[in-house]
Amino acid sequence: MGTEGTETTRPGVGSELPSLEIPITRTLIVAGAIASRDYQDVHHDAELARRKGSPDIFMNILTTNGLVGRYITDHFGPTAVLRKVAIRLGAPNYPGDTMVLTGRIEELDERPGPGTGAGAGTMTVTVRVVGANAIGKHVTGTVTLTLPGTDTGSGSETETTVTVSVTDEEAS
User: Using one digit for the tens of pLDDT, what is the confidence trace for 66-89?
Assistant: First the structure.
């Protein structure tokens, strides 16, 4: 007979993050550019973008940066705090496309903390993430975030560190 109750699943090396599909709309591109104060015409004026050799307006890096952050915090929860984001753009995101963000945990490093409770210590997690659209890979880079933990032994709070790497390689 099995035991009844709730099972807690911890992430492990090779664990896949759920994918996030983001429709790339003209509104998303323009709103992201305005919100980040990027007034370059290629992010809001289709005719000027075409004159400069682009088939249409395209998403700026700051909007992509925010979407990568959203992907990570959607997975790790609302208490996740982004500490470092370093990304590189590849294929442009044009209106009408869909960007799919995927991730895979590649490394886990747990270090004990000052207490013995469930939240004591630090966990560093490295995740490979690919943001792709119909043309190819749109974004690659690295994200580092922290997650708060509670040391049930002493009542003091600790932090868990999670490093997310967005790389050029496809998740195998």
Answer: 999 999 889 878 877 777 777 889
